[in-house]
């Protein structure tokens, strides 16, 4: 069975500073990895995903995450955050190659607060 | 709005009452999922449908919970004899079967049982 750990429950960071949200997973099989974002009073949105190929994946709004198989990590980074990045971020894992959604396991989430 | 919509957005109910939530998926999506999210936790899978067929149910879905998708379009989630532990955000998501890694989530229904 897969599991996801997000060690930081809250991360405050000043505007325009860099940020890293940590995610580690455990699995006995190959995995797909995801980051979801949940803005206040909104639903979950897929931010980026790793399925195969390049271990560095990017989102359209400047976030990137790198799959590190040896360290079983998928940390999310952004070089310069904006106020609008304030949200809850969830790391998620599922079994590859079959990504049946019922097998997607979410982490507990990290609350990112960007301080003006 | 062509996204996933859920109704109501908020529901407060007394313990022991029955509640029903509705989810309208994106129209061309044949898969529909229900998740539950409690405070400080990530979403937990409850059940999912492919068209009108309920393909899998989590052990979290006790016999007080029932979900339907009668015509393969909207879905309902009913909780009978609500308990305080049922208080949570109930999320619905939908996807096209072969693009299951890109499910879209609704805004959720927040249930408070008093």
Explain what this protein looks like in three dimensions:
The complex is a heterodimer of chains A (116) and B (114). Chain A has 116 residues and is an all-beta fold. Chain A has no helices and twelve strands. In chain A, strands 2, 5, 6, 10, 11 and 12 form a six-stranded mixed β-sheet that branches. Chain A has a four-stranded antiparallel β-sheet with strand order 3-9-8-7, with no helix packed on it. In chain A, a hairpin with a 4-residue loop joins β8 and β9. Chain B has 114 residues and is mainly beta. In chain B, 0% of the residues lie in helices and 49% in strands. Chain A binds chain B through residues 4, 9, 32, 34, 36, 41-46, 49, 51, 90, 92, 94, 99-102, 104, 106-109, and chain B through 3-4, 31, 33, 40-45, 48, 55-56, 58, 91, 93, 95, 100-108.
Cα distance, first to last residue of chain B? 33 Å
**Helix and strand string of chain A, N-terminal first?**
EEEEEEEEEEEE
The Rg value of chain A, from CA coordinates, equals 14 Å
- List low-confidence stretches of chain A: none
Measured by DSSP, the beta-strand proportion of chain B falls in over 45%
Helix vs. strand class of chain B: mainly beta
Characterize the biggest β-sheet of chain A. Answer: 6 strands, mixed
The count of helical stretches of chain B stands at 0
Helix/strand structural class of chain A: mainly beta
- Share of helical residues of chain B: under 10%
Number of strands of chain B: 11
Rg over CA atoms of chain B: 13 Å
Strand segment tally of chain A: 12
Give the quaternary arrangement of the chains. Answer: heterodimer
- The helix tally of chain A amounts to 0
- Which regions of chain B are unreliable across 5 or more consecutive residues at pLDDT < 50? none
> Biggest interface, which chains?
A-B, 25 and 26 residues
């Amino acid at each position: 069975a897969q599991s996801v750990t997000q060690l930081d429950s809250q991360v405050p960071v000043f505007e325009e500073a860099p940020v890293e949200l940590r995610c580690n997973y455990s699995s006995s099989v190959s995995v797909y990895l995801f980051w979801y974002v949940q803005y206040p009073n909104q639903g979950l949105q897929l931010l980026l995903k790793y399925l195969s190929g390049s271990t560095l994946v990017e989102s359209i709004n400047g976030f990137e995450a790198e799959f590190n198989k040896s360290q079983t990590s998928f940390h999310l980074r952004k070089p310069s955050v904006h106020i609008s990045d304030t949200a809850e971020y969830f790391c998620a894992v599922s079994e590859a190659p079959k990504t049946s959604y019922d097998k997607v396991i979410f982490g507990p989430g990290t609350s990112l607060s960007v301080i003006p | 709005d062509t996204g996933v919509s859920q109704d109501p957005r908020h529901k407060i109910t007394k313990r022991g009452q029955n509640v029903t939530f509705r989810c309208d998926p994106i129209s061309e999506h044949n898969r529909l999922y229900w998740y539950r999210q409690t405070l400080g936790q990530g979403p937990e899978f409850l059940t999912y449908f492919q068209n009108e067929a309920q393909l899998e149910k989590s052990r979290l879905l006790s016999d007080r919970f029932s979900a339907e998708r009668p015509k393969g379009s909207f879905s309902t989630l009913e909780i009978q004899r609500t308990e305080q532990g049922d208080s949570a955000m109930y999320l619905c998501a939908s996807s096209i079967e072969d693009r299951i890694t890109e499910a879209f989530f609704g805004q959720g229904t927040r249930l408070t049982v008093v």
